[in-house]
Amino acid sequence: MTKGVSDSLDLSLNEQSGVWNFAHRYTSLITFWNHAEMCGRQIAQLLLGESTMSVALTSELGNRTLMDAIEVASHELDVLGEHLLHFSKGFRVILGYRNFYVHSLVATEHNGLVPGDWQGVLFSLDGKGRARFFNRKLTSQELEVVISEIHKLIAYGAAIQKALGASGDGIDRLVQIYGSSLDMPIWPRCVEKTALYLQGQEPTPKIKRRGRTRGKAEKL
Question: Residue 67 pLDDT > 70, yes or no?
Answer without folding.
Answer: yes
